[in-house]
Amino acid sequence: MVIGAGHAGLAISRCLSERSIDHVLFERGEVANSWKTERWDSLRLLTPNWQSRLPGYGYEGNDPDGYRTMSETIAFIERYAEVISAPVQVNSYVNSLKKNDNGYLVTTNQGQWQCQTIFVATGACNIARVPQCASAVPQGIDTLTAMEYRNPEKIRDGGVMIVGASATGTQLAEELQQSGRQVTMAVGEHIRAPRTYRGRDIEWWMDAAGIQDERYDEIDDINRARNVPSLQLAGSPTRATLDLNALTKLGVKLVGRLAGINDGKAQFSGSLRNQCALSDLKIGRLLDSFDLWASENGIDDEVEPPHRLSPTAVDDDPLLGLDLTRGGIQTIIWATGYRPDYSWLDIPVLDRKGFICHDGGVVESPGMYLMGMQFLRRRKSALIDGAGADAKELSAHLANYLAG
C-alpha cells in the first residue's frame, strides 16, 4: 500500500508494478493534490523541464530549458498517473495506520484495509512551520503562511514583512515588491545561487558533477544535510538570478533573522552581515567544485569562462528592531519552512521532532518505507528527478523483504 499520490508515490507505484507487486495508492484529494491546493499562482518549478524524469516517463515538450508553471506541473503528474495506470483511490483520507500480526491496518474514510507492507509518500510539506513569536504579532496585522499565499491581489495594501529568505521567501518578496508594496525581509540561514553559471543552468552543473547523486550514507552529518535551506532560485522565462542583491535593487529592505516580538516590536538578529558572508563563501566553494569538474572532464572549452557573483550588499547599519504598531507593516508572511503531518500514524517510529526514523527510506518498523523526503537516499530525493532512483532501490528492498 502507498499513502500519497504525488510524484513520489506514483514513482514507487510504477516500480512496484514492474515487479508485479499488487498495491493501491491512497490520496487524500486528487492526484497532485498539494500542487493544486497549496501553491501560489505564479510559482514555477525551480528545476528545468528536462530534469522532470520519472520511471518510464519524462519531459516531451520543445522547451527543455524552461520551467513549468503550476498548471503544467499538475498536468505532467496527472498524465504520468494515466500512463502508468496507477491504482489510485482518490479522496481517501487515512485516519490511522497501525501495526498488527499480519502487517499493517490502514483506516480511511472509505473503510479499513490490511496490507503486508506500506510506503509513506505523503511528503515533507504538509504543515507550515510558524515560529512561536507569531502569537505576539499585534492585532490588526494580517498573518499567513507561504502555503496560504496565492497572489498580491489577495494581500491588503501596505508594507509586508516576509520571514525567511530561501527560495520561497525570495520569490514572494520579488512578486510583492513589484506589486508596489514595500517589502521587508528577515534573513536567516540561506544559500545564494546563480540561475546560470558559465552558460549552463546551475541544476545542469549539479547533475553533471554528480552533486545531486550524493548518497545519504556518504555524508558525515546527514541530519544537517537534510535540513539545509533550499537554494535562492526562481524559475523564470528570463533565467534571471534571484538573490538578495537582486531584491535589494528592487527596493526590498533586508534585516537579520527575526529573534522575537515584544510589546509590538519585532527584534532582529545582528548577524545579517555574517550570514550573507557565509552564504557567499558557500556558493564560492560550490562554483569552485564546478570549475574543477569541468577541468577534469575536459569541457572548459565547451562552456563560458569562470566568473563569481558580487558579494551580497548589506547596509552598514541594518535595523535591529521595528515597531509593528505604527502601521508600516500590514501583513506578515511566514516563509519559514514546512514539516510533515504524521498525526494519523499510530506506530512508534517518530523521533523527538516528529520525523519518521529511517535508514535511507527503510523505516525501523519492518515492511514500512518512506518516499519523497529531503535527502532520503540522495541529495535530489525531494525533487521530481530524485524519486525514480529512490523508488527503484526501495522497491527492490521491499521485494527482498517479501521473499523472506
Walk me through this protein's architecture.
By secondary structure, this protein is an alpha/beta fold. The chain folds into two domains: 2-126 and 340-402, FAD/NAD(P)-binding domain, CATH 3.50.50.60; 129-334, FAD/NAD(P)-binding domain (3-Layer(bba) Sandwich), CATH 3.50.50.60. It has nine helices and 22 strands. It has helices spanning 7-18, 33-37, 70-83, 167-178, 202-208, 222-225, 244-250, 272-296, 384-402; strands spanning 2-3, 25-26, 88-89, 94-100, 103-108, 111-115, 118-120, 127-128, 142-145, 159-163, 183-186, 196-197, 200-201, 253-255, 258-262, 265-268, 321-323, 329-334, 338-339, 358-359, 362-363, 368-370. Strands 3-2-1-7-22 form a five-stranded parallel β-sheet, with helices on one face. Strands 9-18-10-11-14 form a five-stranded parallel β-sheet, with helices on one face. A three-stranded antiparallel β-sheet has the order 4-5-6, with no helix packed on it. The longest helix has 25 residues, at 272-296. It starts with a strand and ends with a helix. The model has no long low-confidence stretch (mean pLDDT 96).
Q: State the shape.
A: globular
Number of domains: 2
Please give the largest β-sheet: 5 strands, parallel
Structure class: alpha/beta
Q: Could you tell me the mean pLDDT?
A: 96
Helix content: 25-40%
CATH superfamily of the largest domain: FAD/NAD(P)-binding domain
CATH architecture of the largest domain: 3-Layer(bba) Sandwich
CATH C-level class of the largest domain is Alpha Beta
